[in-house]
Predict the 3D structure of the following.
Amino acid sequence: MPGHPRVDTGQLMELLSVSLGAYYGDFTAAAADQRLTASQAKTLSVLRRGPAAMRALAGTLACDASNMTGIVDRLEKRGLVRREASPGDRRVKNVVLTPEGERTIDAIRASMHATTAGLATLDAEERATLHALLSRVFAPTPEGD
Amino acid sequence: MPGHPRVDTGQLMELLSVSLGAYYGDFTAAAADQRLTASQAKTLSVLRRGPAAMRALAGTLACDASNMTGIVDRLEKRGLVRREASPGDRRVKNVVLTPEGERTIDAIRASMHATTAGLATLDAEERATLHALLSRVFAPTPEGD
DNA sequence: TATTGTTATACTCTATAACTATA
DNA sequence: TATAGTTATAGAGTATAACAATA
């Protein structure tokens, strides 16, 4: 029953910018609490789904492969990840989350209070609607996810 | 009529992360086309609404005031912004977008094809719904905007 | 005294190019 | 020859601390 206040694409772009900026700020602050940069935390986040080769990691993070060396170096020095030789291809190194790395990224996610509080205001139907709309707009994951 | 596929907060957080990556990647690529970094383009974007003091700019961009000096230095060297003395307070410098700076940020926004294409798939009601939901979650701008 | 903007410093991120060790 | 990861390099972003000018 709520009328449609006639939102144009420009307004939506602006709101997306603000909303995603808020999300990023929340994530960055939560990462800083663990003395990690946003890039380091994002790397842990990607590895939360499972090990990944350096090259694949760079692809997912949308940065040059040479950057990953330094980022993984610092995470490894902190004991949050470790490099493992790949059995099949001796050129490849798989990066694996250590138990402490797992705890750290989980802690970061759990302390994104602004975002979780905002999401908590949505009921089940609203969550499904938001999920469907964002999926449409950013048409991600041609793969299974 | 579409059932609610039971989206939990974690899935929504994950989708927000993916959406942020897509939006930010689109923005960064559009900025790079103009040979600008994301931070520089974001600065132009903020100034598009009107002049701002260095301090206020740093606050909006959520970075330390000392960073703004270098960012504005580079934008000024390119002729995209200029510093102006504040009439009321001689400590303050207002940063103003030049006409070329205006054209540049408008061009960047216009070339965010992935995002605009995604938004174009939404009809008026869906745009209004997405706007309302995002506003609820990220409850922004206690100020006028 | 407090604030604005700047400088100095150190660390991180980033891309490009060149290198190595594999394939 | 092609690819995975690294190194070297240079430019840019980032925060902390200290400073000059102004309030």
User: Anything to note?
Assistant: Residues 37, 53-55, 65-66, 68-69, 89-93 of chain B lie near DNA strand C (CB under 10 Å from a C1'). Helices of chain B lie at 9-33, 38-47, 54-61, 65-77, 99-110, 113-120, 124-138.
